[in-house]
Design brief:
By secondary structure, the chain is α/β, with parallel strands linked by helices. The chain binds SN-glycerol-3-phosphate.
Length: about 210
């Protein structure tokens, strides 16, 4: 499973690139706002640091506007993926962008039918938001299972990015289902490699080593 880092924080991105755990990055207007940086400036910096795909979100509401934004972003780097909202206008834009060879990530997907439509339009990626479904009492991960089954039934090449990942179990569940990608925020990344028993084991070995005859 590929790991994308769900952030616009340069320090975090660099950390996971160095660890070999960053196969790509996803951003959105909220994450750009949280970074406190200028959108174009920080996005171009991320594109240089990350060897893989970087999702950059279009904010226009009509297809024409989205295509215009996408063409501008595409000029910033070969690894640009344009994030397009799951709307009728969005799907129109995806169709045009796919023909132009610009990669797309259809975002804010909350149903299997939305994912099916996005795949039919030619989307490179779809992003089901599982944490936000959990928030309203649904099992978000079940949506990922449905989308993967549907894509397999018809041989769609569209890859599934499990998004709105809130905790480590989401990552395990995505991997068990064989999702192509999980986009993981830094606070969850941190929890993936830590375990209290690992820390305890290291402490014990170090303290015993101090007492060992050397
Ligand atoms: O990748 C989408 C993600 O950023 C949304 O996460 O936690 O705001 O639902 P969240």
């Amino acid at each position: 499973m590929k790991f994308f880092i769900d952030t616009a924080e340069i320090i975090e991105i660099k950390k996971y690139v160095e660890q070999g755990l960053c196969d790509g990055v996803t951003t959105n207007p909220t994450l750009i706002m949280k970074s406190g940086r200028n959108f174009e400036e920080v996005t171009k910096e991320i594109l240089k640091i990350v060897p893989g795909p970087v999702s950059v979100e279009a904010i226009s509401e009509d297809a024409k506007g989205m295509v215009k934004e996408a063409e501008r972003f595409a000029g910033w780097g070969k690894n640009v993926v344009v994030k397009i909202p799951m709307t009728a206008e969005g799907l129109k834009a995806v169709r045009v962008l796919t023909k132009k060879g610009i990669k797309t990530n259809v975002t804010l997907v909350f149903s299997a039918n939305q994912a099916l439509l996005a795949a039919k339009a030619g989307a490179t990626y779809v992003s089901p938001f599982i944490g936000r479904l959990d928030d309203q009492g649904e099992e978000g991960i079940n949506l990922v299972a449905e989308i993967l089954d549907i894509f397999e039934n018809y041989g769609f090449k569209t890859e599934v990015i499990v998004a709105s990942v809130r905790h480590a179990r989401h990552v395990t569940d995505a991997a068990l289902l064989g999702a192509h990608i999980a986009t993981i925020p830094p606070n969850v990344m941190e929890k993936l490699y830590r375990h209290a028993k690992t820390d305890e084991g290291i402490d014990r070995f170090l303290s015993d080593w101090k007492k060992a005859k050397k």
